[in-house]
Write a structure and sequence with these properties.
Blueprint: H1 4-12, E1 25-32, E2 43-47, E3 56-60, E4 70-76, H2 86-89, E5 97-103, E6 110-121, E7 129-136, E8 139-147, E9 155-161, E10 167-173, E11 183-195, E12 200-203, E13 209-210, E14 215-222, E15 230-239, E16 246-247, E17 262-265, E18 274-284, E19 298-302, E20 308-313, E21 318-321, E22 325-332, E23 338-345, E24 351-354, E25 358-361, E26 367-377, E27 382-392, H3 402-438, H4 445-452
Parallel strand pairs: 13-19, 21-27
Antiparallel strand pairs: 1-11, 2-5, 3-4, 4-11, 5-10, 6-9, 6-11, 7-8, 7-10, 12-14, 14-17, 15-16, 15-18, 18-19, 20-22, 22-25, 23-24, 23-26, 26-27
C-alpha cells in the first residue's frame, strides 16, 4: 500500500493537497503514475548494452500497481532468440541495460525521499536485477538494488536521496543467459523533500477610489527556485487605519484560500463602503506560510454609492418667459467626493461644467424642454436628475417697447412744435421792430390838443 502521502496524491488524481500550516513541511517534488499511457517528455529511455539488440522501457497495460498502466523494462524490443516482440511473449531479453531517466532540480530542499512501486520476476541469483541510481556532478551512484524478483507482487521501495541529485535513473540489467522471465515493472514514482523557506506575495498597487463590487484584487505570489510552489494565497483586510486585520472569506470559499489570479473582494461581505487596507499571505505546498508584513501591501477607498444631486432651478414643470434660463443644482458625495458635473439639454450631448453648480441657457424656442444634470463622484459613480420646463411664447406685441417709442415720439413732436413756435415768434418780433424803425415819429396826443385850441396864451414876440 502506498505511504500516506502517496496514497493522498494518487487518490486525488493530482488535485492540490491542502497541507496544514507549519514552519516546515514535506513537498512533492516529482510524481509519475504513467497513466498518460506513453513515456512523457520528462523521461528519457535507452539501452546502453545493445549486444542483443535494443530493448528498453515503455508503457505497458499488462500490469499496474494503481490505475491502468506502468512502465515495463522490456516493452520495446525483440527477443534475441526467436525474434518475437518482447511484449508479445512478456519476457525480457538477454544483455539488457535499460535506463529510465528523469532530470531533477531540487535545490532548496532537505531530506529527499524516493518512493516507487516495483514488480520484478527475474533469474534468481543471477545477473538480472532492478536498481535505482542518482547522478550528481556527472557521476552516478546506486541507491537501490533488487535481484530475483518480488514473488508475484508489487513491493514499495523507499530510498533516501542526497540533496545534490541532478538525475534519477531506474535501471534494469540482464546478463547473457536464463532470460525466460518477465522482468521488472515500475509504477507510482514519487520524490518528496522537506522545505522550510516560505513563499512571498503582495497585493498589487490600487487606485485611490473604486466603485466595483466585487473589486478584483490582483496580487503576485512566488515560491523559491525549485521549491514546492505556491499552494494558495490568503487576503487579509481591515477598514480604516487601525485595528486587527481579518481573513477574507466568501460562502464559496470559507477557508479563504485563493488560487485565482485575482481575489473578488466584496464590501458587503466585509465592513461596507469605506477605506480599506490589505495584505496577502502565501502558503506553499510544503505548508510554509509567509509572515504578515509590517505594513499593508495596498489600500483603496471603495465607494459603491452614487452622489446626491438636486436641481434647485428651474422647478419641475415650471413655465418660464422667453429669455435666459438659469439652471442651478447642488451635489455632494460623503465618501469619495464630487469629481465633476455635466448637463444635457433636450437629449443632446453632455456638456462639462467642472465643479460649477449653474448654467445659463439662452435662445430657447417656445415649448417644452428637458435639462439633465449629471454628477460624478471620484470613484466613478453617477447620478442623473432631469427637470422638465416650458418656455411660453410672448403674445403679439407683448414685450415690444411701444410706450417708450410713443414717449419718444411725443418728445420729438413737442420739440419740433416748440421750435416752430419759437422761430415764428422771433420772426414776428423782428418784423415789428423793423417796421417801427422804418416809420417817422408820430406827434403825441398832448401837443395836438394845444395847437388846436384857441385858449392857448399868445406867444411872445
Amino acid at each position: 500500500m502506498l505511504p500516506a502521502l502517496v496514497a493522498l496524491v494518487v487518490a486525488a488524481s493530482f488535485l492540490t493537497i491542502l497541507a496544514p500550516r507549519a514552519s516546515a513541511g514535506t513537498a512533492i517534488l516529482f510524481l509519475e503514475d504513467f497513466e498518460d499511457g506513453t513515456i512523457v517528455p520528462d523521461w528519457s529511455v535507452e539501452d546502453s548494452n545493445p549486444l542483443a539488440g535494443e530493448d528498453y522501457w515503455g508503457i505497458s497495460d499488462y500490469r499496474a500497481n494503481t490505475g491502468n498502466y506502468s512502465a515495463w523494462a522490456a516493452q520495446v524490443g525483440n527477443q534475441s532468440i526467436g525474434g518475437q516482440n518482447n511484449s508479445d511473449v512478456h519476457l525480457y531479453d538477454d544483455d539488457m541495460q535499460a535506463d529510465l531517466t528523469v532530470d531533477l532540480q531540487v535545490n532548496g530542499f532537505d531530506s529527499l525521499t524516493l518512493y516507487f512501486y516495483y514488480y520484478s520476476r527475474t533469474e534468481s541469483g543471477g545477473g538480472d536485477w532492478i536498481q535505482a541510481w542518482y547522478e550528481a556532478g556527472g557521476v552516478q551512484f546506486p541507491i537501490f538494488n533488487n535481484t530475483g524478483g518480488t514473488g508475484n507482487r508489487w513491493d514499495l521501495a523507499t530510498v533516501a536521496v542526497p540533496n545534490n541529485v541532478e538525475r534519477l535513473i531506474i535501471r534494469f540489467h540482464s546478463d547473457g543467459a536464463n532470460h525466460g522471465f518477465e522482468g521488472a515493472y515500475v509504477d507510482d514514482v514519487l520524490l518528496t523533500g522537506v522545505e522550510d523557506v516560505p513563499p512571498t506575495s503582495a497585493a498589487d498597487p490600487m487606485p485611490t477610489f473604486v466603485n466595483d463590487r466585487p473589486y478584483e484584487i490582483a496580487y503576485a505570489a512566488s515560491d523559491n527556485a525549485n521549491a514546492s510552489g505556491v499552494d494558495y494565497v490568503e487576503l487579509w483586510y481591515r477598514r480604516g487605519t487601525t485595528g486587527n486585520f481579518t481573513l477574507y472569506t466568501r460562502p464559496a470559499n470559507p477557508l479563504g484560500q485563493w488560487i485565482t489570479p485575482t481575489i473578488p473582494f466584496d464590501v458587503t461581505l466585509a465592513a461596507g463602503d469605506g477605506y480599506y487596507e490589505f495584505y496577502t499571505v502565501a502558503v506553499d505546498r510544503a505548508g510554509n506560510a509567509e509572515a504578515p508584513p509590517a505594513t499593508p501591501d495596498a489600500s483603496v477607498t471603495i465607494d459603491t454609492l452614487s452622489p446626491t444631486l438636486t436641481v434647485t432651478s428651474p422647478q419641475a414643470d415650471a413655465v418660464l418667459p422667453e429669455g435666459t434660463v438659469n439652471v442651478s443644482w447642488q451635489g455632494a458625495d460623503a465618501l469619495s467626493g464630487i469629481d465633476r458635473f455635466e448637463t444635457s439639454l433636450d437629449g443632446g450631448a453632455f456638456v462639462g461644467a467642472g465643479l460649477a453648480t449653474s448654467r445659463d441657457l439662452s435662445g430657447l424656442a417656445a415649448g417644452s424642454h428637458t435639462i439633465v444634470v449629471r454628477a460624478y463622484d471620484r470613484a466613478g459613480n453617477v447620478r442623473d436628475v432631469s427637470v422638465d420646463f416650458t418656455i411660453q411664447a410672448a403674445a403679439p406685441g407683448e414685450g415690444f417697447p411701444w410706450l417708450w417709442i410713443l414717449l419718444l415720439l411725443l418728445v420729438v413732436i413737442g420739440g419740433i412744435l416748440f421750435f416752430l413756435w419759437w422761430r415764428r415768434d422771433r420772426e414776428e418780433k423782428e418784423a415789428v421792430k423793423a417796421v417801427e424803425k422804418a416809420a417817422p415819429e408820430a406827434p403825441t396826443e398832448a401837443s395836438e390838443g394845444r395847437e388846436g385850441r384857441g385858449d392857448e396864451p399868445p406867444r411872445e414876440t
